[in-house]
Each structure stands twice: as C-alpha cells, then as structure tokens.
Amino acid sequence: MTDPQAVHAPTVTEIAPCGxxxxxxxxxxxxxxxxxxxxxxWLLSQMDVGGGVFASKTAKSRTVTVAIDAMNFRKPxxxxxxxxxxxxxxxxxxxxxxxxxxxxxLRRRELQPILVTDGNFTYVAIDEExxxxxxxxxxPIPA
Length: 143
Description:
The chain is mostly beta strands. The chain has one domain (20-126): Thiol Ester Dehydrase, Chain A (Roll). The chain contains 1 helix and 5 strands, in the order E-H-E-E-E-E. The protein has a 5-stranded antiparallel sheet with strand order 1-3-4-5-2. Strand 3 (82-92) and strand 4 form a beta hairpin. The protein starts with 19 loop residues before the first strand and ends in a 17-residue tail after the last strand.
C-alpha cells in the first residue's frame, strides 16, 4: 500500500543538474578517506550545507536538519573535482521542508558534469529560541 503523503524525489535525469545551485566547492586532499577517494561524510556535509541554504531561503527563517532519506552514492568523488549541489523543493509542511539534493562533479578534462550523489533532506524552520515555527511559504508546492 502506498502512502499518499509519502515524499518522492523528482526523477533524476543523470544528464544535467536540475534545480537551484546552492553551493560549489573543490574537493581537496584533506577530504579523502583511507583509499584516497573523497570521504562520503564530507560530501554529505556539503550537501547539507547547500540544502540548508535553500531551506532557509524558502522558509525565510533559520532551519535545522532533522532527517536524511534515500541517499544514493552513485560514483566516487576525487581530489580536484569541482562539486556543485543543486536543490529541488519536494514538499513544504507546516514547519518542515523536504528538499531533493543532487551533487554533481566536473572532473578535470571532462566536459559534462557527472551525478555522484542524491537524496532527500528534511529541515525544520525554527524561531529565535530554537522552537519549530510555521513556514510562511509563497512559492508553488510541487504535486
């Protein structure tokens, strides 16, 4: 049985980034794991930063991360890759926002970006005391 309120990510095309560009950064040697690839936790944190920027802009308030769902680590990230995080609004609730984030890389000597990671991040809007607050949202909400 399918939950009609379930959050589903937009269709991932894997052809080109889609959504708002939230952050762009360079993968550095200090960000590697024991195998010399970029550590997945570092990439996840970059996605969270980008998603937080998008969520705060959408909610017009501070937001905090409350959940990460449906993460797909598709391809490795290497030192020197230029990482771009793109956000698409999935759902706006009373106090929460769900955002689908995609991390794309542009590798040296490559002309096309490569989708490396995507997933859904949920943020809650908070007030000055850190309590959830109602989101005043004026953008159309996807069906």
